[in-house]
Write a structure and sequence with these properties.
eight-stranded mixed beta sheet; alpha/beta
């Protein structure tokens, strides 16, 4: 990426260990991962915004008739016999997996470096396997207790991997595999010995990155994007979705370093520099609306 101007201070690179230490000190809950905004309208508004974006760009993901589902009777561009797959990186307690991805995809690979968070995500997944089928809990009522869609019936699955984004390769997933729930699981959150877990490296239809890429330095960010692009099953249909805060800019790309969690908040032009350096094309971009006042703007980018 471009060098800073002489008037701009050189920012430190994020320190992965310091970042993990900070997040490990926060509650393993929606409120903890969302900086105190986990009990209001933000989780629902955020999840619906992301779902709408994905269905707009990949309407074949719609599971019910809708205004944005293709009217054509021609075959869908994806193989209907193949289970759809998504990667959720920097996944925290599984918020995006449960509230967005499992509503649209058959299988999710959830990657998170912070141990208290991924342990809580696994607990939530295991609880969903035995959830009361008649339970009806609103997302804004008690988001941590909402059963994960399709897990109890084993129609969907989530595999849990502890790894940092600096080291994780979506095309060749590796790390500490904590378990699997739903389809291909054994009913206790463990990987079923009779199931070939080789599907971990079978590629993805969507790589989802939300509120986690600030933990990467510019070189690590570009390298991660390149690895993610190589993991897309179909380079003409697959998507890398980035949903991140934006800092302001004064005519050029810039970033702000946050000492508390050792992370970078980038401006729109800074993100676009990283996309270009990684060889990614912007397919769609839009600001997320409906968040409380006083927060950074949040923008979604769809890339391939």
């Amino acid at each position: 990426m471009g060098a800073p101007s002489v008037d701009e201070p050189v920012l430190p690179d994020p320190d992965v260990e310091e970042g993990i230490k900070y997040w490990a000190s926060q509650p393993a809950s929606y409120d903890g991962v969302l900086g105190g905004f986990g009990n209001g309208t933000l989780p629902r508004v955020d999840a619906l915004g992301t779902r709408q974006l994905l269905m707009y760009l990949l309407p074949e993901l719609c599971t019910v008739p809708s205004a944005i589902r293709p009217l054509s009777t021609a075959p869908a561009p994806t193989n209907p016999a193949r289970r759809t797959r998504a990667l959720d990186v920097g996944a925290g307690v599984g918020r995006v997996t449960s509230d967005v991805l499992l509503h649209l995809f058959a299988d999710v690979l959830l990657v998170e470096p912070c141990e208290p968070f991924i342990i809580e995500a696994l607990r939530r997944g295991r609880a969903s396997e035995s959830a009361d089928a008649s339970a009806s809990i609103a997302l804004d009522e008690n988001p941590m207790a909402v059963p994960w869609k399709g897990v109890r019936e084993r129609r969907t699955s989530v595999t849990f991997v502890q790894a940092t984004l600096q080291d994780f390769d979506p095309a060749r997933p590796a790390g500490r595999v904590l378990g699997r729930v739903g389809y291909g699981g054994d009913g206790a959150g463990k990987v079923d010995a009779d199931v070939d877990v080789g599907d971990m490296d079978s590629g993805f239809d969507v790589v989802m990155c939300q509120w986690c890429l600030g933990a990467l330095s510019d070189p690590d960010l570009v390298a991660f994007f390149r690895r993610s692009r190589a993991a897309l099953r179909d380079p003409k249909r697959g998507l890398i979705v980035v949903k991140e805060n934006l800092c302001s800019e004064d005519g050029g790309p810039r970033a702000v370093f946050d000492e508390s969690d050792s992370s970078l908040t980038r401006s729109d032009l800074a993100w676009k520099e990283a996309f270009a350096e990684a060889g990614l094309q912007i397919i769609h971009e839009q600001i997320q609306l409906g968040f409380p006042e006083g927060l950074y703007d949040v923008k979604m980018y769809a890339l391939r």
